[in-house]
Amino acid sequence: GQTNLKSPQDIQVYVVNTNFTLRWKYTGNDTNVTFSAEYRFEDFMIDGTEWKELPGCQKVTHMECDFSSAITEYYDKHHVRLRAERREEVSPWSSVFEMTPYDIAQISAPGIELQSINGVIKIKVSPPEANQVKKMWIDDLSFNYNLVIWENSSNAEFRNQSIFPTDFIDGLAPDTTYCLKVQATYPWEAKEGLFSPVHCVKTTRKAVNDLFCATNVSVLALNMKFHLHWNNRYKQHVSYNVQYLIGYLKKFYDDYSVKWLNVPGCENITDTQCNFSSIITTASGIFYLRVQAMNEYNKPCLSNEVKVNPLVTNEIGPPGVKVDISDVLLHIQIYPPGGSESEVMSTHYDLSYRVLYWKNSSNNEEEIKMKEIKQTIGTISDLTPSTLYCVKVQAFSKAYNKSSHFSKEECIKTPGDKILPLIILATFVTALIAVLLVAAPLGFALYQAYSKIKYVFFPSCQPPLNIEGFGEQLFNSPCLSTTEEPIENCSIIETIITEELNQTDFKDYKHSKQSSRDSGNYSNDDDTSGSKGSEETLEKEIV
Questions:
Q1: Which residue segment(s) compose the domain that 335 sits in?
Q2: What is the pTM of this model?
Q3: What are the tens digits of pLDDT across the range 78-133?
């Protein structure tokens, strides 16, 4: 069981696409030594998977071997081990190397084809695993391509740019040799592939464009309204067709030159502008536009392409603002920019609003205050009474680093100070209550005095008529009934005896009435009955 063979060291597995290479180091001085490897992969359905011989790595004499044919499961975890062998003698197994193929795999270099035409370089890229049956990277359309190009000279400057599978490299000097290399990247897994071998090509001179070709093609977009503008140097009749291409078509490896479409409403026009908002059907897509000019001889000329990323190209317009005032708050109503497209603007840009407000006075040193809000309704407190406040609002998007111009200023005056009127009102109410508290008892006392005086000096009752004939002073009593009693008409026989008796009785009567008046207890009924009794007595005595 003794052996002098050492175990292999520094076991490594290199994976490029679906190509697997095992490499190691051996520090022993032994000759005629070979190496053999075993592997197993973790199967969650079967516990304790047994080691198997690794195809392509049995009794090899070099320090590496290719075992690509042995691996078919790229997302499972695999174990690899290695040992040295010499005839019947074997070394201990090396440490186990653990790997998941997909995680450690590299992207191979893409294939490229170059063509120099009309002052530009046309490049066509093929995916890293083109024409392969077994693929590590399932979706070729997920690859992006990074180009590095430089002028083949001693003081070359390297230029990096992203390209499509079929693309044109412009901005090059004529009759100049350029070298380039291309790298594939896999954004979903943040993987960068190997660069292709360097290819060099010489540019040609660019043909002079005809005068009728559209130049300086540009896009102006505001609140999701898109317009294409261009210049016309030709003085004769020229018509234009504006064409567009949906961006994802450039991701395909096929020729997309036949897939350009005309923009509705921008066909065979003579204007140098076009509203192409109708083709922007999604805010997250990419679009390419170009202008095809046609002279009077029906000769076409295509302009340069313009790339449109709607949410990046578009600019945010100023929002609408309406202000209102209450007792202590300034209310601000904000209308998102874009009008009918305001929902698209608010949703995709996640708009916030920057509110500036200040006192509009002759003092130029008045501080301008700022408030940022997310909602379309805001309030401002701590207002000064009887002051003109002005407000303007700016919309901005942090996600896209965009901001609009400020809206028009809206001004409104706060109400006057209401403290003084409240003080005056409180003072008036207090005085009114005090007057009522004093005047009520005084008025009641005066009313009682007045009633007494009127009762004594101005009675509402009058003595009966049959008593009034006996003298006003004698029977001027306020307590006598004023009701007229029916009386009998009598004739008096005047004699001395009668007159004397009459005077005597009247004296007694007057004395009796005087006593009764002093007592102060009267009633009309008693007085009336007393009067009747006295009259009857007098009549009987007289008779």
A1: 320-413
A2: 0.65
A3: 999 999 999 889 999 999 999 999 999 999 999 999 999 988 999 999 999 998 88
16 and 97 housed in the same domain: yes
- The pLDDT of residue 300 is above 80: yes
CA distances for 242 relative to 276, 326, 355, angstroms: 9, 54, 41
Residues 336-376: tens digit of each pLDDT: 998 766 677 877 888 999 999 998 877 665 688 999 999 99
CATH code of the domain containing 197: 2.60.40.10
Q: Are residues 117 and 79 in the same domain?
A: no
What region does 52 belong to: left with phi over 0, alpha with psi -120 to 50, or beta?
beta
**How many whole angstroms separate alpha carbon 335 and alpha carbon 337?**
6
Q: Considering its fold, how many domains does the chain have in total?
A: 4
Long-range pairs of 348-352 with CB within 8 A, sequence gap ≥ 24: 348/283, 348/311, 349/311, 349/316, 349/397, 349/399, 349/400, 349/402, 350/397, 350/398, 350/399, 351/316, 351/395, 351/396, 351/397, 352/395, 352/396, 352/397, 352/398
Q: Exposure string (b/e) for 103-130, b if CB count within 10 Å is 16 or more?
A: eebbbbbbebeeebeebbbebebbbbbe
